[in-house]
Amino acid sequence: MTITLNHTIVPAVDNREAARFFASIMGLTELPPAGRNGHFAPVRVNDTLTLDFMTVAEPVGVHLAFDVDPDTFDGILARLREAGVPYGNDPVDPGNGRIDHPLCPRGLFFVDAARNLYEVMSPA
After folding, report:
1. Domains in the chain, ordered, with CATH?
2. For residues 118 and 23, what is the distance between their CA atoms, to the nearest angstrom?
3. Whether the model pTM is above 0.70
4. CA–CA separation, 58 vs 94, rounded Å?
5. How far apart are CA 61 and CA 67, in angstroms?
6. Which residues of the chain form beta strands (DSSP E)?
7. Are 53 and 18 in contact (CB under 8 A)?
8. What is the pLDDT of residue 1?
9. CB–CB of 24/49 below 8 Å?
10. Residues 6 or more apart from 59 whose CB is under 8 A from it?
11. Contact by Cβ (8 Å): 88, 97
12. How many other C-beta atoms can be found within 10 angstroms of the C-beta atom of residue 84?
């Protein structure tokens, strides 16, 4: 059997706000609340994966990296700029406004309120 990742929990200051932010930047779909008492705010990433945002008292940011095609990268970059969200090519300085990523032709990092670090990489 092939192993695929079904979902992962992403810590959040406010699960619905975090899911909405991530979905809006990435151009993805927010799903209805899930889990006991709706404590997960899931976002569909692809056919097999959701990120399930969960409110926690003291969130510790995680690093999530995504490979995207050039058109998807352009859309993400445009939405970051339109929303005034800082981005950059360095995880230590994710607000430097650069997209010349050290591991690929174009890439960037951005953070959310829980200091989750999102990395987006494109082959062109």
Report:
1. 7-55 (3.30.720.120), 63-122 (3.10.180.10)
2. 12
3. yes
4. 22
5. 20
6. 7-12, 29-30, 40-44, 50-55, 63-67, 106-111, 117-122
7. yes
8. 76
9. no
10. 11, 12, 13, 114, 115, 116
11. yes
12. 6
Q: Are 120 and 108 in contact (CB under 8 A)?
A: yes
Which pLDDT value is given to residue 36?
85
24 beta partners:
none
Q: Do 69 and 122 form a contact (C-beta atoms < 8 A)?
A: yes
For 91-100, the CB contacts below 8 A with 24+ separation are: 91/63, 91/117, 91/119
The pLDDT assigned to 81 comes to 98
Q: How far apart are CA 49 and CA 94, in angstroms?
A: 25
| Chain-centre distance for alpha carbon 13 | 15
Report the chain (124 residues): mean pLDDT per 10 consecutive residues: 92 97 97 91 96 96 97 98 98 96 96 97 94
Q: What is the pLDDT of residue 37?
A: 86
Asked if 108 and 88 count as a contact pair (C-beta separation under 8 A), the reply is yes
